Amino acid sequence: MSSFAPRDYPKLSTLPIISLAPYLSPHDGKGRISTAAALHAACLQYGFFYLDISAYVSPEEPEELTRLAQEFFMLPQKEKEKIALKYQDGARGYARLAENVTNGKADNHEGIDLLRPVEHPDKTRPLWGENQWPSIPGFREKYEVWIEKMKHLGLIVMQAMADGLGLTAEEWAELRSQVDDSFYVMRIIGYPPLPTNYDGFSCGAHKDYGCLTFLYADPTRGALQVYLRQKGLLIKESNNIRAEEHIEDGMWINADPMPGCMVCNLGEMWEVWSNGLYKSTLHRVLHTSPNYRVSIPFFFEPNFDAVVKPLPAALRLQEGTSTPASAQKARANVQKIYEPVVYGDFLKRKVENNFTTSVQDGDED
Ligand SMILES: O=C(O)CCC(=O)C(=O)O
Ligand SMILES: [Fe+2]
């Protein structure tokens, strides 16, 4: 029985849209406050949002990356296999269609993974090999420019989130030092249409495991879906028609691409930093339209050796205190503190267990 009458439900629309522009201009103090507050609210409620990056990226740039990805995926299979994962550390290179498995089922996609390069590469060590690039002219150059842009974007969004969570300047400096040499993953994904009666998904339901995901996807609609778990009143508006739907136990909503925006979501490391205040949200891809879909998520992750643990600012919020001094006293009221995680160790465990482990294993609510 619910004690929550439907009319009192929090109103949920499609995912919130947040503009990053104030954080790109040096003097927009007011704008920053509202961006930081909007980020905080989106992270509390959804763990997913649209990031309006039109002030940072011109639309032609990711369109060109999509075109290059298409060109690669359209090559004969034998050509694509020349950079197969098996020639390196098993994590860098080309994964053929259905090689990736989620929840025990083969995903109907293919892809290329490019990870942060390491010093003294050794392909016999997990994650420690070298990237394998397609030989298509311009491919590597264009993606390397994008990677630099996404790393910089990661730091900007982290700063805005730190403001939203109420970190002091010293606390932000400490958090920044955990992400300033991101062990990122640039993934390039190709999705043929999902065959009818396919036993699985284009990409099965999962949480991202790291810090922040910046997803650029081609204009295909109705592919990426996000799971909203809270009760609420979903407001849908299209073609001037407004519909309301009560969500009782959670539901999947579409996160279609929006011009000038990327879809951004939190990985599990943010659950740890925020001591569970912010959730890493389940999502999946069901691509049933007849076109070949391309998406290029950039996973902005902590540094390999970062020790990720609950931030004092998150504990202060949970304790209902606002200053570091008063928080000390109230600490005992916080019911559960997440265990610290060394990001690189966590990632290696993930790879060994085919990405099935979670920071909260055995502890799902
Ligand atoms: O292709 C997409 O829209 C999402 C892909 C995704 O969730 C992932 O690679 O983690
Ligand atoms: Fe994902």
TrEMBL record:
Pfam families: 2OG-FeII_Oxy, DIOX_N. One of its GO terms (molecular function) is metal ion binding. It comes from the Eukaryota. Residues 182-302 form the Fe2OG dioxygenase domain. The keyword Iron applies. Keywords: Iron, Metal-binding, Oxidoreductase. InterPro entries: DIOX_N (IPR026992), IPNS-like_FE2OG_OXY (IPR044861), IPNS-like_sf (IPR027443), Iron_ascorbate_oxido_reductase (IPR050231), Oxoglu/Fe-dep_dioxygenase_dom (IPR005123). Belongs to the iron/ascorbate-dependent oxidoreductase family. This is 2-oxoglutarate-Fe(II) type oxidoreductase.
